[in-house]
Amino acid sequence: MSENAAKSAVASVSSAAPTGTQKAVRWHPPSFDVRVDDIPIPQIEHPDDAIVKVTLGGLCGSDLHIYRGHSGVQDVHICGHEFIGEVVALGSSFGAESAKGRPPLYSHLEVGHRVVSPFTVNCGECSVCRLGYTARCTGSLLFGSPLLNGGQAQYVRVPKAGGTLFDLSEPSTWASSMTEAEKQKALANLSDSSLLMLADILPTGVFAAAQSINHPKVQPFITGKPWPLCFSSASVPEGLEILDEDKVFTAAIVGLGPVGVCAAVSLLDIVSTRKIPFRIIAIDPNASRREKMKAVYDTIDEDDKAGGEFVVVSVDEAKQKSKEWTNGVGCTAVLEVVGNTSALELAYELVRAFGVITSVGVHQQRPLPFTGGNAYDKNVSLDFGRCPARAMFPPAFDLLVKRQDIFGTVGQPASLIDKIVDFSEAEESYRAFDKGEIGKVLFDPWK
What we know:
The protein is an alpha/beta fold. It has helices at residues 3-10, 63-67, 105-108, 127-130, 161-164, 180-188, 192-195, 201-213, 219-223, 258-273, 287-299, 315-326, 341-350, 372-378, 389-402, 404-407, 426-434; strands at residues 21-27, 34-40, 50-59, 77-78, 83-90, 114-117, 155-158, 166-167, 249-254, 278-283, 308-313, 331-336, 351-359, 381-384, 417-421, 440-443.
């Protein structure tokens, strides 16, 4: 649709958004300055838009890059890329004859439906989206940036909403390993605070774990066959068999913020379910984060973490444990979920030759702490980048349902969410989160 046609079509929206002003948490340059401002409620600007009344918005570690002034951003904007809420207005594309052949929500989404959004806009119609690489949709925009206002507000405009949102009121529109009845039952018992984790942190943790365990260089540990026979149905010649000690998958997780905890929970679920012998080193220099990870691990049933060893350690302890467990060889996979050069430097130090580093931390402009020569010398594979959160929603949802003992509580030792606050605590929440004094915080815009 041309720009002029789109603008003219806005006049025929299927429903109108509320008017007036709303409260929103906005970042002001140059750094460390967030304020609760009264600003206009967003309106439908394009036929594919939806307006969502936010019930909860999340404070994420990625928000801190702009908060600290590290992203080169200069424009005032509404913060936050995690939100859940209720649809209050839809553009004219929804329910129209033209919706046929487009993503299902253009036919099924209605005002009043409960929705959760991934942290980026995804059209669902380009080749990139069709292949599942939704984070890099050709029309992608990041919520909580100067280009698109975020979800720490009472209302948020969602562009390309039919390809972006997940309709929690109509679960038949998305895949799951569960039956439709099981999905309906699960959704009826899941709180908004739990479901909000599907916006970013849980899909990203699942993505990091899946990227690592499914990497080609990890397959000898999965198949019990040496490289490259691990990709073949051919039998292993006598004398070339892998020993049992060679089959142990050793991984390190650098960073135990909310995403790191999600990655650990996901990785434990994968290796225990698939009965892969494992050793996992969970690392953070912050003692309170280590205690949170220990509490989460202790909460998980023995059957769901069987088949290996799991330790939570400081940086120096991690180096020693890696040497001890691998006879100095190093970890098969390292999941880096921090997003700074010191974390990457540690990841490179811990990874073995022919290992893989999976980095889902949001890195800025500083150069990598190792050279191409360093990577060559270790035959190390580097996987970088943003999680395709919308594509990862189905496995993340299944894990969310399975692990409600962790994801379904607030304010407990093993809870991923520390507290839910109103906007009056926004400034202090950002400060404390930046200092590592608190964990995951959610904002209730209507308190």
